[in-house]
Amino acid sequence: MKGKIYGIGGGAEKITVTFNTTPSEAIVTLRDRDGKEVQAINNKVYKIPKGLYYYDIKASGYRSVENIEVKLLEDETIDIELQDIKLIPFSDLTNEELEKMLNAHYNGEIDISDYWHVGDTRLIHINATVGLSDEEYSGKISEQDMTFVILDFNHDDLVTQSGERTKAAVTLQCKTVLADDGYPDEVYYWGSSHVTTNTDNWNTTPMRTWINNNFIQALPTILQPLIKQVKKKNLSTHTGTSTINTQDKAFWLSYPEIFGTSTYTYYKGTNQEGTQYKYFKTEENRIKAANINGKGEGTNREWWLRSPSSHYSSSLGYSWCTVNTNGTVNNDTTYSSDCHTIAPAFCL
Prior knowledge:
By secondary structure, the protein is mainly beta. The protein has 2 domains: about 70 residues, Immunoglobulin-like (Sandwich); about 230 residues, no CATH class. Helices cover about 10% and strands about 35% of the residues. It has a 5-stranded antiparallel beta sheet. Strands 3-2-5-7 form a 4-stranded antiparallel beta sheet, with no helix packed on it. The radius of gyration is 27 Å and the shape is elongated.
């Protein structure tokens, strides 16, 4: 009876191929050149005709190797050591590996801060966004690659507890400022010219609606479900210290989240709007340049915060806090030509 011909060698002569894997519990899948799975005669030991084969090796918590082509012409032991995803830099993780790490954190199996570090970065593609209106500086952002940086771990309060955790695993922010579509990366705070009143706050600005919808939807679809909604505290007026809470998937930062306890004359809060992220304890990290190909290779830009400023103009209304081009605090109005750049943040 004629035997089937496999691979490149033909004939019925068989060889013994053994896979030696690290970790030992890794699962091996071997396929012939036609894609048919080959069954092992023992744990990871195969008795097969000579020929061309493909293999996958997978283990929970490790980076898989898949569809590896190999010519097997004699008895052979193949040694494979999978890479522990916990040891892969934040920048190099696939989105699937990123999700596995976050799931392990929220299930209480690991603490993500043992493996990633404040200041670690990751390049994320952002699709073009629709603005709040057709007006210039309305928040219409062009398609771009953006480097996001880790600001801190276990810092922001989750709206809904996840597994054993009440804090978001990690907070990320644009390392540079977003590039606007055609208007040198600047946007109005309000999405259009607006005379700010004393009771205008982060909860009422249309830019909060934009960032929690248009901006989130511009992120990769595989990343969007991983974003956690968190509780943010905000001053409810420009001249007082009372607060209003919001629940945000994305947000602009506040004065104390960057500078810590206030010493700024025009900021009436102290720590009502949160506490300083570790990343901003280094003063130079407060400076943001224009985004060019995912890198801060443009000129330094002034960027908006969500914190109200008590500075008042009878014709232009109240101001909002900004971070100046040298990393110090500033403020500006939301009317007429007063527009600056933005650097959204979100939590995973």
